[in-house]
Amino acid sequence: MTASPKGTPHARASRLIPHSNSSHMSLVTRFAPSPTGFLHIGGARTALFNWLYARRMKGVFRLRIEDTDRQRSTPEAIEAILEGMQWLGLNWDDEVVYQFARAERHAEVAKQLVAKGLAYHCYASPEELEEMREQQRKAGKPIRYDGRWRDKPASDSRPNVPPVVRIKAPQSGETVIADKVQGEVRFSNEVLDDFILLRSDGTPTYMLSVVVDDFDMGVTHIIRGDDHLTNAARQRQIIDAMGWPAPTYAHLPLLHGEDGQKLSKRHGALGIHEYKNLGYLPETMRNYLLRLGWSHGDDEIISTQQAIEWFNLDSIGQSPSRVDFKKLDNLNGHYMRQASDAMLADGTMALLKAKGIAVTSDLHTKLVEAMPGLKERAKTLVELADGAYFLTAKRPLELDDKAKKLLTPEARAILRGAGKALEATDWSAQALDEATRAYAEQSALKLGAVAQPLRAALTGRTTSPGIFDVLVVLGRAESLGRIGDQAAG
RNA sequence: GCCCCCAUCGUCUAGCGGUCUAGGACGUCGCCCUCUCACGGCGAAAACAGGGGUUCGAGUCCCCUUGGGGGCGCCA
User: Fold this and answer.
1) What is the DSSP letter of A148?
2) Which nucleotides of strand B are protein-proximal, with an atom < 7 A from a CB?
3) ipTM, 2 dp
């Protein structure tokens, strides 16, 4: 069950991979998303693991955009991926590699394979192949290319039909992937067919491009989603045909939505920018994503620095995990409480601004001042901005339903008395506290009976940071004004 | 249909044959703290999918079943 290391590919890699101009060939990982959509949470985790491993091993982390699908790739998606990576703090080394730009190189490799007799031209039409698959389906046989052009002599070629290039895959024996997560995975070569390397228009397929790029980029460790596990066997065949060193693989179990179903748009597969908009912190995401499938004993709170020291491939779990927003919220709350008040105030300002609220340096000052009380009541920046309502509200305040209900005639009378008592005191938390308690005592009231009306009048809500802190942050004039507004009402 | 992967509390996980009457975290529930809500503290309920083996001994190893997931394109 536990994956164990099988051989030491790096040793061979250091000998064979090109452009190793230093005597010590370093480890290279890569993240290779295709820009057909946003960077979603599963991709982000894959990127994180690659990044952590490279940093841990003092290696190189590279980014490759697999934009060979010209129909579905968009510049917007590329931009979103790059921004997502930056927001997460996953900095990559070297230039970004764009796969499409390397098509010629890929085609060249395919041609080398044909020249070596390890790949061949196939003139079967798509229709013909579809029919073949249909028959295989009907017969309950495995669906794969039957090798009809594999051994035909060149003289059989169809002059007016552009052929595809297929790999001449081994037909017996097995292809073994020594995976750091899944262990040794064996595929009988009988189930692996002669897949296409080069399309009839001469462009390379994904399978070829990946292998060539990984080799050319010096990638030594491929950490990617489980959905590529069977691809690994095919890719391995290209690698072997070229006589290249095989990289170390680590196929991560896929992430599932909260309902256990495949991660889809409505099940948590939000673009990573959505998490930003939802008010989560990058460090939260790093910690959370790390714990989805990787563990270090019972540790839950793991700083990025600590993660870099601890991260390894052996502790990656083999089973898929679900995203859980409750836990994400809790973690975010932790990191927010730990964050500096100034940084949190900045984040809140940005959110308020986006909501069309006028932000001033005075507001920033107040936010920073109120932040200790605010941040322990919020799990996201969005909640923080919401909790800061009382700082941005203009008199007379709009009360929410609970606050309205709380301000009974009796409560308003208490407000009048409290207002008078406060008017006569120093405007410091301690003096305000003492004055309020004294007033409560002389009126034979519990402190809460005074504090809650005050809270409603001052914040428009029934929950807020400590009432004396609110008083101080709001200042004497504004506070008394708000109290007066409601005492009168 | 064929191939591959996976399976411990609701969720994330610890566990790498005996220390497991299965540990931690989130969530849930109760109590404490308390001007509200939080934070914090304390406590509770909550899991080895089922069946066969192997072994003196299995959550841990093997097989089967069941249940999830992935793959089987001139997509990536």
Assistant:
1) T
2) 1-8, 10-16, 23-27, 34-40, 60-62, 68-76
3) 0.95
